[in-house]
Amino acid sequence: MPFKLCLNTSTIRPQPLLEKIRLAAEAGFEGVELWINDIYEHIGRGGEVSDVEKALADHGLIVPCMIALRGWGEASELEYPLMLDEARRRMELAARLGSPWVVATPPRAQCELEQISRRYRDLLELGRQSGVRPTMEYISFFGSVSRLDQAQRIAEEANDPDATVIIDSFHTWNSGGDIEELRGLSAERISHFHIDDADPEMPAGTQTDPNRVMPGDGPIDLKGEISILREIGYDGTVSLELFNPGLWEKDPAEVLAVGIERMRELLG
Q1: 28-56 pLDDT, tens per residue?
Q2: What is the number of domains present in the chain?
Q3: Which end of the chain is more exposed for a tag (fewer CB within 10 A), N or C?
Q4: Of 125, 97, 105, 85, which is closest to residue 34 (Cα–Cα)?
Q5: How does strand 190-195 pair with strand 237-240?
Q6: pTM of this structure
Q7: Parent domain of 184
């Protein structure tokens, strides 16, 4: 089966939520990866979740994954129940919009991996109650889970059949990782794949989200990465995920036209 090409809406962040959905569909994407805070903002401006449901249905888009669960890994014992309550609300919202996955973001500062593993297991249990599976994220410029192997370790230590990791080209490269690490994963343990490239003028380990560039404009071996993913049997959903302020200033339709063409060249 071919990969399903999706858009993470951070790529055109300044646009209103419903406009992001329309633009993604018109560009030819099959799915749209939504940010929960965007939906909260839409509701805060007087909108309804049903508006989002209708827009997705009208444009025939799937929701491959939603972002994100935050604050759960590092919360104090006193705050942790409150974080779980918010995680439950977010997972219920993701389930309502048909998303099978919701990203579990690690702590920004240093935090014991054992605690993160234990709490990730709690999220997985909550997810089963909500009908959504939390997936473990690694962020290359964070102090806790910055590498793929750390996210993989947490998923393994959770000892839960629903434990997975979300792959990100930028974070794998920026953390100093090697794409050969992907061979150590089973396809069933990969929830989703973020495709992006890195600033060719800056070394790995020095970049953050705004430094991401269009696939093919940077140094990341995306073809090699995709080849390995195919070899291990992953043929699921892939999102273009950029946070580049320069792209936000351009015509979003033009940005997406370039983005989906680059994805088609790489993924087929």
Answers
A1: 999 999 999 999 999 999 999 999 999 99
A2: 1
A3: N
A4: 97
A5: parallel
A6: 0.97
A7: 4-267
